[in-house]
Design goal:
Blueprint (H helix, E strand, L loop, with lengths): L15 H10 L2 E6 L13 H17 L2 E2 L20 H17 L4 E6 L4 H17 L7 E6 L10 H6 L7 H10 L16 H7 L5 E4 L10 E4 L16 H25 L20
Parallel strand pairs: 1-2, 1-3, 3-4
Antiparallel strand pairs: 5-6
């Protein structure tokens, strides 16, 4: 009988027995977070989740840490066909429930690997983690890290370079990563960009894909934010500059940085919370 392939580091492919054996030697877990959203005509809707899954698995292999199933559902804000939006509050609650469930089984070090930004999404996630650590006793000795993929750029050749060029979304960076991970899903023959001035506006700021509407134009009236109807493709950047070779180099840098940082953090983790410097965030009244 042929020997079965080792399902590690993917939690969903492991058995109860294998997870129990893992928990005897480690209580750490990596949690990749993505989204299903518009990525132009040349990249799949699962781009962020695909990147989270692929790179998360490589980090797990390098660190010896098990990797949870990728979370596909999140808040995009986009509205082009195929995009799936769940509210930031729901996304944050699902992540919280996952953390509570796994903490109850004995996991103690959680490394959240966030591969979808979005200002609303990120704020809700950080708030939820902070409130759980503050209020839920199951997290009394739990360590939680939050790695944005954009933070894992030690050589400043990836996200830092891309953001400086306005390559926010479905541009050369994400296209290169998908070319390296799943070239069969890249359709450069269908590459198209939004017409000007909409492409330029989105490169200037990623939230420029939205427009604001009010029933009454008054400072006390909350605006309704929606994707601008003139945006038909949903690319913010320069995907024509992408290459698989660049993608492989960027992935290697991300995996190396994240793995080293996680290893260093875990080497110091003793399950005891200690006093650290605290600076309050600006008050909402500061502009009065």
């Amino acid at each position: 009988m042929s020997k079965k392939a080792n399902p590690f580091p993917l939690l969903e492919n492991m058995t109860v027995k294998l997870v129990r054996e893992y928990l005897e030697r480690s209580q750490s877990i990596i949690m990749p977070l993505g989204v299903i959203e518009q990525h132009g005509y040349h990249l799949p809707l699962c781009t962020d989740a695909l990147i989270a899954s692929g790179i998360g698995r490589l980090i797990g292999l390098k660190t010896g840490i098990v990797v949870a199933p990728t979370m596909y559902e999140s808040f995009s804000g986009g509205g082009l066909p195929g995009t799936i939006n769940i509210t930031p509050a729901t996304m944050a609650q699902v992540v919280s429930d996952r953390l509570v469930s796994l903490a109850g089984q004995g996991f103690r070090q959680f490394h959240l690997f966030l591969c979808h930004g979005g200002s609303e999404n990120t704020r809700a996630l950080k708030d939820a983690i902070g409130i759980n650590l503050r209020l839920n006793p199951v997290f009394e000795k739990v360590l939680i890290t939050l790695f944005g993929i954009w933070d894992c750029d030690p050589n400043k050749t990836g996200w830092r370079k891309a953001i400086g060029e306005g390559d926010w979304h479905a541009g050369w960076l994400e296209t290169s990563l998908v070319m390296a991970l799943r070239p069969d899903l890249v359709r450069m023959q269908d590459l198209e960009l939004d017409k000007e001035p909409w492409l330029r506006k989105q490169i200037e700021h990623p939230d420029n894909y939205q427009h604001a509407q009010k029933i009454v134009d008054d400072p006390f009236v909350v605006p309704r934010m929606k994707q601008h109807p003139e945006i038909k493709v949903g690319v913010m950047g320069h995907p024509e500059r992408a290459s698989a070779a660049l993608g492989r180099k960027l992935i290697a840098d991300i995996v190396q940085f994240a793995s080293q940082r996680i290893t260093a953090i875990e080497a110091k983790a003793d399950g005891v919370y200690k006093e650290v410097a605290f600076t309050p965030t600006p008050l909402i009244f500061d502009n009065l």
